[in-house]
């Protein structure tokens, strides 16, 4: 009984093994005959080394074991260009790196025309970057970043079009000169800033000196006009006082004569004679004495002794009618527009109207003068060139 069951068990194990083998082969056939292309991909399809076309997104059934599908990412891809060393046109060493943005436009060309398009574009970008930097001067490599990007992209367009790849953008990230050049540039920048600071300081001192001088001028004018006005008023007062004293003395003298005459008449009346012969002048003296006592003499003749009541001849001599006009002219000459001066000072304080020349404009004018002198020196030549150049340096 046992010997009969042994062959059956051996046959059953062999059948199971063959079944497993066929199952594995079926799975392999299905796996190799089904291709899934994602939405952002396309595939180059070949059968036994023959190009059959491009597979779009979705599930595709192909010949198993003899077919091959190469997938291409149709999205924009980023390629880092390693740091490159180059020598500029003015023999200055620089290092630079960049980023290139590419996109596959034709999977057939990218599959048939180039081996590994990413590596090809990266190598081409490196050589192009070195060539572009070597064709420019140091200052241009630092300042004209957009021009460098445009030139690299232009150089990459033609060969990459043949590969079915489009260069969308090129961006140079850093351009660094050597350490010695960096130190020289820092020194130059520091010297330029010091130069600007010195120019601005000189302009400020000049403006301050002008403002101080203007203030002193206005102060001196006001002080001089005040002294002039005071002297005129003092002189007018002295003149008026002198005339008043003269008129007062004249009036007092006339009164003394009248009083003396009255005393004489009193002495005559005390005599023993009963007849008196009086001259006509004495009669007139008595009449004037009566008028003097009443004050009518002064009023009738118009000799009022008020402070500023003088006849026309005296007023013209003293200049009383011109005193107001003279003082008015003095006030006009000494008048200062204080509000305008305050507004100007406020503008200067706020920096709106500082009156200072721009440091950049002054530097440009100085550089233009230097360039003119240099061009004149190149054209003229001769022994005077050294002297002219030294004069320009001295001006700087």
TrEMBL record:
Keyword Transmembrane tagged:
yes
Output a single Gene Ontology CC term carried by this record.
plasma membrane
Which stretches are tagged as biased composition: Basic and acidic residues? Answer: 385-396
Q: Where is this region: Disordered?
A: 342-396
Taxonomy, superkingdom: Archaea
Q: Which residues fall in a compositionally biased region of kind Acidic residues?
A: 358-375
Does the record carry NADP as a key word? no
Q: How does it sit in the membrane?
A: Single-pass membrane protein
Q: Where are the transmembrane segments?
A: 12-37
Against InterPro entries, the record matches this protein to: Band7/mec-2_domain (IPR050710), Band_7 (IPR001107), Band_7/SPFH_dom_sf (IPR036013), Stomatin_HflK_fam (IPR001972)
* Signal peptide start-end: none
Where in or outside the cell is it found? Membrane
Tell me the keywords, alphabetical order. Membrane, Transmembrane, Transmembrane helix
Spell out the Gene3D superfamilies in the cross-references. Answer: Band 7 domain
Question: Per the database record, which ranges form the Band domain?
Answer: 32-189
Homology family: Belongs to the band 7/mec-2 family.
Listed name of the protein: Phosphoesterase
- Which organism does this record belong to? Haloarcula sebkhae
Q: Taxonomy-wise, where does this protein's organism fall, top ranks first?
A: Archaea, Methanobacteriati, Methanobacteriota, Stenosarchaea group, Halobacteria
